[in-house]
Design a protein that fits this description.
about 5% strand
Length: about 130
């Protein structure tokens, strides 16, 4: 089996979960619900039972869906036709994409948050061998 990586056909989208959580909390504070701790947001994303006021939940869901749409848009801008190519979301953002993004048969999710670091290590190793 050929295990070479075609780095020309993969892309890392730099949008961060930290920035997303900040935007979520800005929206939640605007509706008068204070600030949601990061751990509660993480649990909400992975469908754990958490106590979050309904107005805050609405904001969180809207922001998570906007994030997923933005990621899908950025992939489209990067030349990936999401209707016709296979898409693999990896790491912590994969859970957000799975729950709040568009679902298609050609999309897969690897939700292990350590996979991002392992992937970067593999790509760096590949690039060092080329250089």
């Amino acid at each position: 089996m050929d295990k070479r990586i075609d780095t020309e056909k993969s892309v890392t989208v730099p949008n961060s979960i930290i920035t997303l959580f900040r935007e979520i909390n800005d929206g939640v504070m605007q509706v008068g619900c204070g600030r949601i701790p990061e751990e509660v947001l993480q649990d909400f994303i992975i469908s754990k039972k958490v106590v979050v006021p309904e107005k805050a939940q609405t904001v969180v869901i809207i922001k998570l869906k906007e994030f997923a749409m933005e990621i899908e848009g950025l992939l489209g801008e990067s030349g990936f036709d999401l209707d016709y190519c296979n898409v693999l979301y990896i790491g912590g953002g994969a859970t957000i994409m799975k729950r709040f993004g568009e679902h298609k048969e050609n999309v897969a999710y690897l939700e292990d948050i350590r996979l991002n670091a392992k992937g970067y290590e593999l790509l760096a190793s590949h690039q060092m061998k080329r250089g």
